[in-house]
Amino acid sequence: MEASQALKVLMKVAAIWTRQPTDEAVEAEWCESLSRVSFQAALEAVRDFRDGGRQDAPTPGEIYREAAGIDKRAEDQMRRRTLKLVDHSKPNGEELTRVRAVAHGLTERPKPSASQGAATAAEGQAIDAETGRAQDIILAKRRELGIEAARR
User: Fold this and answer.
1) Ranges under pLDDT 70 in the chain
2) Positive or negative, the Cα torsion across 139, 144, 147, 149?
3) Would 108 be classed as within a structural domain?
4) Contact, 13 vs 46, CB < 8 A?
C-alpha cells in the first residue's frame, strides 16, 4: 500500500475513534506498518473493528495483522479458483488405450511380413549384383589407366 492510502486508513480510524492522534510521527508509523498489506484489506480490517463494537482505536499493528489475514485468505481463494479451472480428472480407459497405442507405435519398429521379407531379400541381392558390376567396371578402368600410365 502507498503512504497516501495508509494515511486514508488512519483518517478513517480517526473519524471513527475521535481520540486517535494524527501527528507526523503517528502518520509515519501507520505508513510503515501498513505498507505490506493491501489498501482494501486494511479498510476491511478497520470496518471489522468498527462493526465489532471496539471501544478504543485499533493500533496499526492490529490492523496490519487483520489485513494480512484478509490478504492471505483472498490469495488462497484465488489459488483455489485457479486450480478448479485445471482439469484434474483421470483419463478413461479408451483414452489410456489410445495413448498407449500411440506410444507403442512410436517406440516399436514394424516387423516385416513374409512378402515384405522376400522383397527385401530380392532387393538386397539386386543391390549386391549391381555393386559387383560397379566394382568390375572400376577395376577395368583402373587396369586401362594403369596400362596407359605405363605407356606414357
Assistant:
1) 85-88, 109-126, 147-152
2) negative
3) no
4) yes
